[in-house]
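Consider this record:
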Amino acid sequence: MAVDFQLIDRVGTTTPLAARPGATIAQVLMENFVPPLSVTVTGRGEVPLADGEHVRDGQSYRARLIEGYDLGAIRRLYTEYPGDSGHAYLKRRLVFRDDGNLTLEQAPFDMPDLARHVEDTVRQTIERFRLVQPGRPMVLGLSGGVDSGSLMLALGALIERGVPLDLTAATFEDFDSTYSDTFDRAHELAERFGVRHELIPADLARSVFHLDRPLRDVLPALMETEDSHQTMYVDHHTTRRTLEVFAAEHGARTIALGLHTTDLLAGLVNAQATGYRLGGIPLRAVGDFSYVFPLAFVPKKELDLYYLHATGTIPPQSPPNPWEFNPLDRNFYYYFADFMQSFWPGVEHWMFTGAAIAAGEDKQSFVTCGNCQGSLDPQGRDWTPGDFCDVCSILARYDYVKGI
């Protein structure tokens, strides 16, 4: 016996769906690329069934489409895969054809093909959005992890192809940075392409934010406060602002970060959910500095495989930071961003173009924090010269800022 699970469209056409006995109705629908909210499911006697109901062997189920779109045509896009080619990666992109219909472009890549694709994507992103200006120095935040490490590899490959980049890689000092594996990886990657590699001393962050103790002591302490959910944002802002000060000391106003497609999509969703004005992608102006994201159109999976191919080693992964385990963190945004890319391959090309247009139209004006001197968007709030940014306000609240 088997489960009889039929999809019925709005004109009465039925299509059988694969269904595993014991699976929930929602699982059956999702496995067949049917959004559970697009159908009403009934069982014996036309009794409506909840999505959590488990399907039973030998029973019949009917999923009646209640939405007006052509679900059958859309489902066919996702279910048509090329034959087993033995390639390492399948690149997919959902696009509109000249006749207005959707199609799913698919290209199997072996590892060398994928490496060339990633490097070509980075080069095209730099050229299309003019991320690098001739003769203008640029600082790359290089942590030694897979994301910034992959960006170093891709930019290094462009340098080897003759692309002129005045690049300095910078790694933050942290505890035993000069002896750690991540620092060694960062140094080896920069040295591989003849790129200058500098260590940003821990005292610089302490000086910029006028802290009464090292930043590495502030962050764990914040975890014990009622603002623990803000610790990640404090970490990000202190890192960004310290990197700006370091870049300015080296005559650079352009900062490259290894944020990839998922990072930036998650940020966009976060901004939409909170009403926060985010700025452009893959080029974002913040005061006198330009932040560039050459990996904006490279998904994490491509980055992971690229790093493996370029280094011959599986990319190192660290456990999630402790402050990410709370209901207000970014984990769900990343989870959702991965699903966005899975169900809408190429969504970044749509979303980031819109973000770039919006950033150009907004003509953002920036204010200056009275403590760290960083530029920030006041997000529509009244601002008095000398006011502290949100991060410095949190630091001052717990008496980490000297003289306050």
